[in-house]
Amino acid sequence: MQTPADGSAHTSSDSAAHAPAADAASAPAADQHPYPSHWEADVVLRDGGTARIRPITAADADRLVSFFEQVSDESKYYRFFAPYPRLSAKDVHRFTHHDHVDRVGLAATIGGEFIATVRYDRIDAQGRPASAPADEAEVAFLVQDAHQGRGVASALLEHIAAVARERGIRRFAAEVLPANTKMVKVFTDAGYQQQRSFEDGVVRLELDLEPTDRSVAVQHAREQRAEARSVQRLLAPGSVAVIGVGRAEDSVGRGVLRNLLRAGFTGRVHAVNRAFTDRATTEGVEGAPAHRSVRDIAGPVDLAVVTVPAEHVPEVVAECGEHGVQGLVVLSAGYAESGPEGLERQRELVRQARSYGMRLIGPNAFGVINTASAVRLNASLAPELAAAGRIGLFTQSGAIGIALLSRLHRRGAGLSSFVSAGNRADVSGNDVLQYWYDDPDTDVALMYLESIGNPRKFTRLARRAAAAKPLVVVQGARHSGIAPTGHAGAATRLPHATVSALLRQAGVIRVDTVTELVDAGLLLAGQPLPAGPRVAILGNSESLGLLTYDACVAEGLRPLPPRDLTTAATPEDFRAALGAALAADTCDAAVVTVIPSLGESSREGQGETLATALRAAAAACPTKPVAVVHVELGELAEALSAAASTKPGSPAVRPADRPPAAPPTAAAPPPHARIPAYPAAERAVRALAEAVTYAQWRHDIADPGKVPEYDDIDEQGAADLIADLLAKGGDPHGLTLGPDDARDLLGRYGIAVHAVLPAPDADAAADAAARLGYPVALKTTAPHLRHRPDLGGVRLDLADEEQLRRAYRELTHALGRPAELRPVVQAMVARGVDTVVRAGHDPAAGAVLSFGLAGAASELLGDTAHRLIPVTDRDARTLVGSIRTAPLLFGWRGAAPVDTPALEELLQRVSRLVDDHPEVVTVSLEPVVVAQDGLSVLSGTVRLAPPPARDDLGPRTLPAY
Length: 961
What we know:
Elements: H1 20-26, E1 41-44, E2 50-55, H2 61-69, H3 73-80, H4 89-96, E3 103-110, E4 113-123, E5 136-143, H5 152-166, E6 171-176, H6 181-188, E7 193-199, E8 202-208, H7 213-235, E9 239-243, H8 252-263, E10 268-272, H9 278-283, E11 290-291, E12 303-306, H10 313-323, E13 327-330, H11 340-355, E14 359-361, E15 367-370, E16 377-380, E17 388-395, H12 398-410, E18 415-420, H13 429-437, E19 444-449, H14 455-466, E20 471-475, H15 496-505, E21 509-511, H16 514-526, E22 534-539, H17 542-554, E23 558-559, E24 563-564, H18 571-583, E25 589-594, H19 600-603, H20 606-620, E26 626-630, H21 634-641, E27 677-678, H22 681-700, H23 715-729, E28 735-736, H24 739-747, E29 757-758, H25 762-772, E30 776-780, E31 794-798, H26 801-815, H27 818-821, E32 823-827, E33 833-842, E34 846-853, H28 856-859, E35 864-868, H29 873-881, H30 900-916, E36 920-930, E37 935-937, E38 940-944
Parallel strand pairs: 5-6, 9-10, 9-12, 10-11, 12-13, 13-14, 17-18, 17-19, 19-20, 20-21, 22-23, 22-24, 22-25, 25-26, 26-27
Antiparallel strand pairs: 1-2, 2-3, 3-4, 4-5, 6-8, 7-8, 15-16, 15-18, 28-38, 29-32, 30-31, 30-32, 33-34, 33-36, 34-35, 36-37, 36-38
Helix pairs in contact: 1-4, 7-13, 10-11, 12-16, 13-14, 16-22, 17-22, 18-20, 20-21, 25-26, 29-30
């Protein structure tokens, strides 16, 4: 079926001029396969609204007829290449009866009614109806005129293509009238490989459905625009209705109404309560028009703030949906945080809101704030509108949101926007991150997260956002392993340290406390990024300077010797000293330490005067950041925060103005930039260290490296072997490969695992050693003894048969019978450093590569580094060097360095194997002995399973609820 404004495509099997009766005759009398419920999905459209995509069934006949009647004659002509005023009974049957394999139909719905349809029919090489193994299908769209231009056809194309690939279809064919340029654009802009021809006045398009880099990029770009727009509709409404405005002065609804009006919201505000008296509806409430229902409001309502009890929310949502409200902020409690019944109530709330095309913040939310002068929205429980500024703030907790708003206010920082998502049932941090990415009013993003519903997507979005502006994240509940009730999302098996490492790899500034969140945000919002780790320290206290020096060393910075200006230093002394330090080529940043001057007269007005002097010095060298550490000088902190750098019109450093590839110092703040002040040296230095790390990441992504190609990799052979092993295994949950199969599979990626021969008795051990050649190692492989050299289950450097038999006797005498020990014999390899390489698919984070030293370093101390797969050559190099015990690889205490290039190559080969074949769910190589020249993999374990779901790589969808 088709779309003129969003596009329309015609196929011969759907055309009135091309034998629809034949299609009807071949259609099954009823659906032949179970209803594919996993094809159902909610999607965000181009304008920020939502729609539901689902398979069309025989029960949709009336909906289809009603939908078709609302389509214009022009759209029908583009669809059928001829006038087609109405559907016949055969048409309705044909378009609603599908086998969900060779004939598939999907519909986009809002409010339960069709707004668009798409269908495909599998065909053979001659264009006739066919079944598998035919791998081509004709596809056709139809979009209701009122919904054209919303990106509906593009979303349907993504979903029908995914369905087709699942059913073994590799190509789509479509015929389009040349005048139907918008439908042609839907196909050509999708990013798939395609061929186009023109014959008999019709454009014929053929699309290869295999995803390409361009199709994935197009999908992600459309996703960003749609999700950003959906949040913008919530943060910049033209009209707001507060539903549940009680008569009591202290009611939640009345408080929100007052907050909206007090903030000076530039749009229209309405108070709604079905219990309002005639007098209230006539005179208004708090100066706002009052109504008993949203339906009574004459004009449009863009945003509804819902404060009624949970049991009344469904009725309110229905009224909002029928009135055309675009979004909801639900402050009402009594949902997932209250138990299983509340969780089901929350799920139904999301389903109901989405059915009307509305997005939802909450429930149990604190509210939203937008300080833009054109909006001035305070739809929250905060009594005052935050000061305007350049910081965006997202929290999942209302209590933490209150604390952060208060702290930022006390520190003189302004906000661009604030979202407290409560139970995060619909709108999440991912959506807000999409909005901030290209929001011109936001320079720094701060996020308090208690759970990450889609870590793989969050990491992808964070990497893109961090390339444009700093993203600082603190995660609560990170050690309990328990997500707050109601926060739906895939549970990750990864420890918090691993998640933290992966976020840092994506450029996220990951801090541990809300105090550090504010500290880092203030520095990043008010100062330029440092070009390096060299820090000048100056002040009027030698002791405070030394504390600052020690803090810099502890954070991995390179402090210069502190300069003591003595307690007699004047503001002019500070200005001159700071100016000189910033002007020096040996300095990348400066920390100024200040204690009160002696004497009441000298302290009078000291804060303002000193702040002026410091701002003047910083303005003379605007490419280097400055932080101030003060002791009992609150007036200095206030004076420094009074600068207007975080207010609209005079931004501080605007990271988005710098291309990602540029050095961190490519942009400069304006004069009199806001200098952050801290009451402790450790806090100032930690914030500065985070800025240094982030600046280095920004510099490094200019050259992210590449995923290397290896000529000896047999990708197709590995794929065939994996398919054969899974077929033979028969277990739908997968299987762990035996040693020979694992060695075979790894070998196809150039990963050689040394042979291991079983030794059930001493004679077998001697035969194995003779085959392998002396010297050999005798090892136990029983699960309770593996990787436990402390238990004596490994005997090395056995030079001959006599030594081998003696070792065998000692081993079995000390540890048990051979059947319990499972001894094996392996040839000795060159001495080196024992390491471990692992890779696997986490259900939430995706494919992860891990590396560490074997034994206590990784198992006891947790000294393991991680990278997301696929790993580039740069990633592999930094992975090796990022563990704390890395000096052992590079020649510690005079030892010879080992072959780290060979280790990096092994890491990249394992990454390629897991990335190329998602059926490889875990790989463990332990130990990998890295010698001075080359390395040896002594043991390799591989587990296969059917490919895991990769939600972030499929068609665009909202999280299922």
